[in-house]
Structure formats: structure tokens, C-alpha cells
Protein: RING-type E3 ubiquitin transferase
Organism: Aegilops tauschii subsp. strangulata
Amino acid sequence: MIRLQTYAAFSLLATTSAVYYAFSSREQFYPAMVYLSSSKICFVLLLNTGLVAMCTTWQLVKRIFLGTLREAEVEQLNEQSWREVVEILFAVTIFRQDFSVAFLAMVAALLLVKALHWLAQKRVDYIETTPSVPMLSHIRIVSFMVFLLAVDCIFLSRSLMPLIKNREASVAIFFSFEYMILATSTVSIFVKYVFYVSDMLMEGQWEKKAVYTFYLELISDLVHLFLYMLFFVAIFLNYGVPLHLIRELYETFRSFRIRVSDYVRYRKITSNMNERFPDATADELNASDATCIICREEMTTAKKLLCGHLFHVHCLRSWLERQHTCPTCRAPIVPPDNGRTASAQQHGAQPGVQLAAGIGAPGSEGATSENMNRRQAKLEAAASAASIYGRSFAYPPTNTLNSL
Ligand SMILES: [Zn+2]
Ligand SMILES: [Zn+2]
């Protein structure tokens, strides 16, 4: 930030002195303008100032809506920017005959807008897994998403207009497509956030949340897949093979496939939970300490897994969204009927990771359990479960961020 400020100050100083020199040496407006637009040094200076202005605006937007970035956000931003720059360079080679200053400026703007989208997604993910989020953060993220959607729509309509007017392929295809993808991503992030808020208002009891989240992600993946293919064909017919798209096309397809198989697995287990898992008897409840390890609340009724461990039925359901092994002993929740399902159930399990780190050992609650806010405990359990098991159903894999 400080470096940018210093650089911006120097750029502004250099440009002002160039403009001052032009006007003082030419004395009239028109010759001064001719000098400014024909001199190579002046041109570079003006271009540089334009870029600095863009970066400053970007920093300002980030400051207003997100405040200081967390370390994880900065890390992700750096990592994704490099990949994105490489891919945009590929795209630029496709449109090399359209290369101009305006094109360069549009590419820079696109990169900055994209970065804001990654940050929005990352921040929503963070809010979803954080127990107590201040009201201001909610207001900020909502206005940020509205702002992003407005930006997407403005750029989208601006790049669609020349396409509709001239009816011929140009670099505007590239920008229309990119902003279309960004706009759909913004909508999907926003709806996901609405789901989270609804679940919070229902105190975490919204059973259908996982189902709706799944449909949302499925639809957004489908839309992206469709757009990527459309763009691929459009570029292929007019320019040649769009190399920069192959990775994103592949990853969108892959995440789509994983999502469907995850969901089928989840539905298979939860469709008949009442018949599949027997109710715990009063003796069994008394024999254990009758505390549900998932929510740390006392159980009056419970479901018994094959391994003999007891849980609330709704806790078990939300656990199954992420993991298909017993939260206490890690035994498969559904007995493997053949080799394929056995490996599927072990999927994502990392041997040696102690569940106790996230959930807490059954005996360690006691006095603290009353003080613990129920919702907070559940959220913490969900957050740590999500971080232990990198890939999960409710928390999308990191590679879906690339489809932004
Ligand atoms: Zn429970
Ligand atoms: Zn168990």
C-alpha cells in the first residue's frame, strides 16, 4: 500500500510535469495536445498514470468493503493472480491483431475486477465458518456483492454492445464472456450467502440447506460449463484453439462430476436415516455419558451407528454432509458392500489426523458444555471438520474458485 502510494505520487508528479512542459513550451492548447499524444515518453507516462489510477481505485474498493485482508486471503490472491496473468497472456495471443492500448486497459481492469471476486468468495467462505460475525461485516459483504454485480453488468453491457452492433467477432467476445462468468459467480456467491443467513436465522436447524446448496452449485457449474463451451466454440470458429480455456473447462467439468457423485452418496445414506440407524435404547443412553460429540449437548433421543456410538439425528445428518465415517471412532457409517464403496467412504480421510483436535474428546466437556453456545460449538465443529477434510460437500473444493 505504501509502495503504491509512493509510486502513484511519482507517476502523478512525472505526468503533471510532462503536461506542464507541453503547455509551457507550446503555449497553445492544440499544439500542446499534439505534442502530448505524439511524444513517446508522454504516452508512456499517461499510460502509467492510468494504471496507477486503476490500482488506487482497486485498493480503495478493497479498503471500503473488505478492510484489511487476512493472511490466507493475501496468499490466495497472489497465487491466483499469477495463474490468471499467464492465462490472460494466452488469451492476448489469440487476439493479437486487436492489440491496442484500450485492449491493454480492459485486460488490466478485468484482472482487477476478477481479483475482487476471488476476495468476495473467500470472505463469504470465511464468514460462513466463523462463529460470531459482527453486523458490520454482513453489511459490508452484502454491499460488496451488490457493487460487484453492478460492475459486472456495466462491463458486460459495454462489451456486448459492439458485438450486437457490428455483428462480427472481435476481442469484445472475450470480455463479454469473462464478465458473464463473473456475473453468474457473483449471483451464486450471493445466493450461497443468503442460504447461510437463513440457516443462521433458523439456528442451524435448516435441514434442507445442504440440498439447496448442492442445487445452487450444480446450476452454477452447469451454467459455467455451458458458457465455457460456447466461448470455446466461438473462439475456435473465429480465431483458433483457445489454449487458455482448456484448464478451466476441464476443472469445471471435474468439479461438476465430483459434486454429483458426492450428492448421490449423501442422498443414499440420508434418504432412510430412520430405518438405517436404530434408535438408542434408554439403557444405551445411560451407559454412555449421553453427550452428543457433534454438538456437545445432552441427548434424550439418539441414533446408534453400527460401531455403537450415539448422536442426535440432526447432528448426524449435518455430519454426513461432510464425512461418511463415525465422528468418534472413524468406522465407516455404511458397511462397505464392495471394494468401490469402501474406498469412497474412506475418501478424504487422512490417517493420523486426530478428530479430537476439532471436536474435542467426549470426556472433556463436562463443566464447559453449559457455557458453550450451542450454535457456536456446531459452527466450530463444522469449520474444523472442513479444514481437516480439505474436500467436502458443503464446503466446495478450492479448485472451484478457478471457475470465477
Ligand atoms: Zn448433537
Ligand atoms: Zn463410532
Residues 338-373, 385-404 have pLDDT under 50 and may be disordered. Residues 248 and 385 are 28 Å apart (CA to CA). The pocket of zinc ion (ligand 1) is lined by residues 292, 294-295, 297, 311-312, 315 (CB under 6 Å). DSSP finds 16 helices and two strands in the chain.
